[in-house]
Amino acid sequence: xxxxxxxxxxxxxxxxxxxxxxxxxxxxxxxxxxxxxxxxxxxxxxxxxxxxxxxxxxxxxxxxxxxxxxxxxxxxxxxxxxxxxxxxxxxxxxxxxxxxxxxxxxxxxxxxxxxxxxxxxxxxxxxxxxxxxxxxxxxxxxxxxxxxxxxxxxxxxxxxxxxxxxxxxxxxxxxxxxxxxxxxxxxxxxxxxxxxxxxxxxxxxxxxxxxxxxxxxxxxxxxxxxxxxxxxxxxxxxxxxxxxxxxxxxxxxxxxxxxxxxxxxxxxxxxxxxxxxxxxxxxxxxxxxxxxxxxxxxxxxxxxxxxxxxxxxxxxxxxxxxxxxxxxxxxxxxxxxxxxxxxxxxxxxxxxxxxxxxxxxxxxxxxxxxxxxxxxxxxxxxxxxxxxxxxxxxxxxxxxxxxx
Length: 404
Hints:
Number of helices: 14
Helix content: 40-55%
């Protein structure tokens, strides 16, 4: 049970992907990203102009789902809707973390859309109050499971938006500042011994986690640090630099990234190949771009946006599968909407003309996958998957229709 997710599921994904690697082999990655125009390869059907009425209707349905699924106290998600196979989740701490991460993402999505959708305001007020009251209690579940790092990282992104919302309210800004500083402390406390963050400590279960960092967890933390730094809150510089260094160590020459540093001696493990990196290269690239790494050029961002669109099937094959990493290239379902959200952040860094190339295809992927109830989901995780998937998809769509 100690390694029930990281070992068993990656082993499962390795076996399945290994059996099919001869069929799924990708071209040998180039040393430098392609600079050819993306629209020369993206199918014409994906480049057709967006119908804004359709997009806005989709956003409204997603918002309606989030508003209807919010609990009275202001959070989203619960430890219900279990299935026969569940990931390692010691109670109650794992569910505190899942709930915080999910709720922070839902709050973030509503904050982004509030200006155009004032009906979100009461839900935002409840969510802000719940998060400010509950966030100080978030800790690791046990010596192994540290899902709380997701809650700290996504909460920081929400707090950054809350700062904007309450810019003229000194009392609220003081509470927000206190919450941000406490999250800096938590992410310092749970930093991996070699820098960055992971969500398991399978080695020794030490006070300071002894496990290697995971590339996309580092990326989520670094993006969150950047967002609050833009508002004047300075994260601990040594922690930031160690997370950058840990992520760069996991970067390959084609800007795919290892799943985690523990796989550094298995660079062609299916999960470490470009097809396995589709859902995390976006996050790692934008995180390093935010923190001044000059190798993350516009060409790199465009190249990986193009890969995400053209090779989306590899990521989509893992969507809704109940076992993490059981799909081709050991892809897990929960990378789908996560990867597209961070792709949308990459989109914002590009010149307007480049943004327009990718906005339509990214939006169409969201539109095509919306459920009948207005939600989006990619991996069955108790009762958290629909709220977090919907939040990611809404924030992706929002960036696809917003003016540069």
